[in-house]
């Protein structure tokens, strides 16, 4: 199909550029680089990022926090996540299931 590797690389670049321009025109362009997305999120929400990192460190490395096996709201024995009421107090968390966490934030429930 292509005579040289350079021809193939040029064709790929043109194809990627056309796709990117098409998606931008439609308003559907998403940053394809996950690291870039993560960096943008951390820059936008530095207090959340620091609080989440502190909880992760306290649970998995230092042992300052112990992750329970049941939700502190509904008492269901399921996978729990840490909910911060105040990001300035990173180790002050409520361990809740995903449904209760959605209720706290006013989102719709996830059915089991």
What's the arrangement of secondary structure elements?
Layout: H1 5-26, H2 34-44, H3 46-62, E1 81-84, E2 93-96, H4 98-105
Antiparallel strand pairs: 1-2
Descriptive notes:
The N and C termini lie far apart (51 Å). A hairpin with an 8-residue loop joins strand 1 (81-84) and strand 2. The mean pLDDT is 87. It contains four helices and two strands. A two-stranded antiparallel ribbon has the order 1-2. It folds into two domains: 1-30; 33-112, no CATH class. It has 112 residues and is mainly α. It has helices at 5-26, 34-44, 46-62, 98-105, and strands at residues 81-84, 93-96.
Low-pLDDT segments: none
Q: Tally the structural domains.
A: 2
Average pLDDT over all residues: 87
| Strand content bin | 5-15%
What percent of residues adopt helix (DSSP H or I)?
Answer: 40-55%
Largest sheet, in brief, is: 2 strands, antiparallel
Strand line-up in the sheet with most strands: 1-2
Rg result: 22 Å
What is the rounded distance between the termini? 51 Å
Name the overall outline: elongated
- So how many helices? 4
Strand element count: 2
Give me the strand/helix succession: HHHEEH
Oligomer: single chain
Short characterization:
With 112 residues, the protein is mainly alpha-helical. It has 4 helices and 2 strands, in the order H-H-H-E-E-H.
């Amino acid at each position: 199909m292509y005579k040289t590797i350079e021809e193939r690389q040029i064709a790929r670049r043109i194809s990627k550029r056309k796709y990117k321009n098409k998606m931008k025109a439609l308003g559907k362009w998403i940053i394809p680089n996950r690291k870039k997305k993560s960096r943008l999120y951390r820059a936008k929400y530095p207090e959340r990022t620091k609080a989440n990192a502190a909880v992760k460190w306290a649970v998995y490395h230092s042992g300052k926090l112990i992750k329970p096996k049941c939700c502190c709201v509904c008492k269901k024995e399921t996978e729990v996540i840490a909910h911060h009421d105040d990001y300035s107090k990173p180790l002050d968390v409520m361990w809740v299931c995903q449904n209760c966490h959605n209720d706290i934030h006013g989102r719709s429930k996830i059915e089991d």
